[in-house]
Amino acid sequence: MEKMKAIICTKYGPPEVLQIREVEKPVPKDDEVLIKIYATSVTASDCIIRGFKLPVKMWIPARLALGLIKPRKSILGLVLSGEVEKAGENVKQFKKGDKVFAHTLFQFGAYAEYICIPETSAITLMPFNTSFEEAAAIPYGGTLALYYLKKANIQKGQKVLIYGASGAIGTSAIQLARHFDAEVTGVCSTANMELVWSLGADTVIDYTKEDFTNTGKQYDILFDAVGKKKSSHLLYKKALNPNGKFISVDDDSPGKQAVCKANLIILKELTEKGILKPVVDRIYPLDQTKEAHRYVDKGHKKGNVILTI
Ligand SMILES: NC(=O)c1ccc[n+]([C@@H]2O[C@H](COP(=O)([O-])OP(=O)(O)OC[C@H]3O[C@@H](n4cnc5c(N)ncnc54)[C@H](OP(=O)(O)O)[C@@H]3O)[C@@H](O)[C@H]2O)c1
Question: Which of 48, 169, 257 most suits a substitution to test ligand 1, by most atoms within 8 Å of the C-beta?
Fold first, then answer.
């Protein structure tokens, strides 16, 4: 049996619970591709699961779903970029050597040297104009931002405010909202204002200096990309047009409607046209995954934190 290196989440807890181990290298089924992973991303979701940082009311259902004392999927990591090493017998869309990027949805497993993914899942060829590190920065924030903006039925000319404009979801949302020809306002802290301007926001508000609900301006869509109940429809009502929509990353867990091949292809094409630019904050090697988690735990990364493998 061949072996590979992976980061194992040994139990719920601080970043120290993450340990590098030798595990069995996976073997692709007939409908799967075996990918040699070059880059993955440390996402807010990985950190939430590792630290079991969930509201009390979700503790029991979440432990049943995720694992009682440790994550059942012990290798975290939702997104990846890499190269197809082997294609299963029935695989038609990919061949050995293809450069791909993917989102594993609830399967995780990307903090590793190899992963097997069904060809029909959220996997496609990488944009031709990105590095592996940049490609791994696209799927997480990109699929969620696309899903929530479409759910809000974003239209040309609408005034859209993105709260949490500098994170993985926010940086994608700013660029996608601009692509949909909306008038975009981004809200973030002082240190991230320049980044949010550079992504095409028409207006940037520093939440440490100004409360956007007190500017007198009203929006057609308020997208809360911060979550953790830091905002609510009631709190923001006066900044919303009478028919305006409030939408939050806390609203639902989007699943396959967001994380699918079709959305990944849209993101790939927008990236190739230069409309969507992946935002990479820091890059860590796999053996520094704990450090990467410590940084992401702070909740102020700029876009994405990447692990290289
Ligand atoms: N529902 C779902 O299924 C689902 C799926 C994925 C993610 N999420 C949630 O989506 C949220 C965002 O994910 P992400 O990957 O974009 O996170 P991230 O990259 O860590 O970004 C966090 C954002 O929040 C802002 N922020 C932090 N503290 C703030 C505060 N006190 N007031 C205002 N803004 C603040 C940050 O801006 P500054 O650094 O400028 O402060 C940054 O823009 C996470 O809470 C995650 O749990 C939900």
Answer: 169
DSSP character for 210? -
Q: Fill in the DSSP letter of residue 189.
A: -
Residue 6 burial (CB < 10 Å; 0-12/13-18/19+)? buried
Sign of CA dihedral 118, 122, 124, 129: negative
Instruction: Provide the H-helix boundaries in 67-212.
Output: 132-136, 139-151, 168-179, 193-198
CB of 144 closer than 6 angstroms to any ligand 1 atom: yes
Candidates 163, 189, 207, 263: which one to mutate for ligand 1, based on the most atoms within 8 Å of Cβ?
189
Q: What is the pLDDT of residues 93-110, one digit of tens each?
A: 999 999 999 999 989 999
Output the six-digit token pair for 197.
Answer: 């301007």
Q: Phi and psi for 115 in degrees, rounded to 5?
A: -150, 150
Q: Which residues of 264-296 are buried (b: 16+ CB within 10 A; e: fewer)?
A: bebbbebbeeeebbbbbbbbbebebbbebbebb
Read off the pLDDT of residues 242-289 as tens digits, 9 standing for 90 and up: 999 999 998 888 889 999 999 999 999 999 999 999 999 999 999 999
- pTM of the complete model beyond 0.90: yes
pLDDT at 62: 87
Burial of 66 (0-12, 13-18, 19+ CB in 10 A): middle
The low-confidence residues of the chain, meaning pLDDT below 70, are 229-234
Q: Please give the distance, rounded to the nearest whole angstrom, from the Cα atom of residue 52 to the centre of ligand 1.
A: 16
